[in-house]
Each structure stands twice: as structure tokens, then as C-alpha cells.
Design brief:
The protein has 146 residues and is mainly alpha-helical. It is built from five helices and no strands. It is elongated and about 50 Å long.
Amino acid sequence: MEKLIQYARIAFASEFSFYIKTHSFHWNVEGSDFYEYHKMLEVIYDEVYSSIDDFAEKIRSLGAYIPTSLNNLNMLTKIEDENHVPNKDEMIKELLLDNEKMIKILKMTYDAAEAAGENGFSNFLAERMDAHKKHGWFLKSSIKGE
């Protein structure tokens, strides 16, 4: 169970960080196709944000605590901060790499949940992986042919 809790806290912090980065890129994207990218990023961050509370509650149901500060989240996340405003293409490529990282993190956590017999949590994680696969499709399709 400790392995699951460790992975779950990392996955939660990473998911929260992915949300923050996507929302930041939504605010800061520019270009002649601004509106399309602005809306696509909104769809992604809205979906991710809608999962955060359930994610936290799944971890609490394991008897573990959620990171209680940005500092604690930053220590656990595997999604790196972006400290400048990249151009639109760099934003999408960065989010695509982060999204692929999220799928791997969620898969490791899923495997730990299955091993611990936490089937409800593993079902939730499978849904998160599916959601991130869809986000990956959006992101890849938006830069295809560039």
C-alpha cells in the first residue's frame, strides 16, 4: 500500500502541475490562430481540473494526505515548471511531452493500485489515462504537418 500511496501522491501533484501549466498556456498563447489554441487548451485544462477533487479523495480514501502547499506539490511533481512564455508551437510540444509523461505516471500508479487490490482507484486511473490519450490526440493533431 505504501508504494501505491507514494505513486498516487506523485501522480496527483503531477496532474495538478499539468493543469496549472495548461491553464497558463491558455492565458498566454498568441498568434493568428489564437482563438483555436485558446479554446483547445481550455478544453484540456477544464477536463484535468474536473478530476482534481476526485483524485484527492481517492488518495484520502487510502488513508494518505494530499500535499498541503505549492512547495510540497513542487517536490512531488514530475511536470517541470515553465518560467517564461514560449511561443505557441513550443507550448504545444511541451504539453505533448508532459502529457506523455502523465500517461506513464498514471500507468505506474494504476499498476500499483491493481497490485494493492484497489480496483476502484485503478478504474479511476484508467479513466485518467484515457483522458490524457485524448488530450494527446488534440495536441498532436494541432501541430501535425508543421
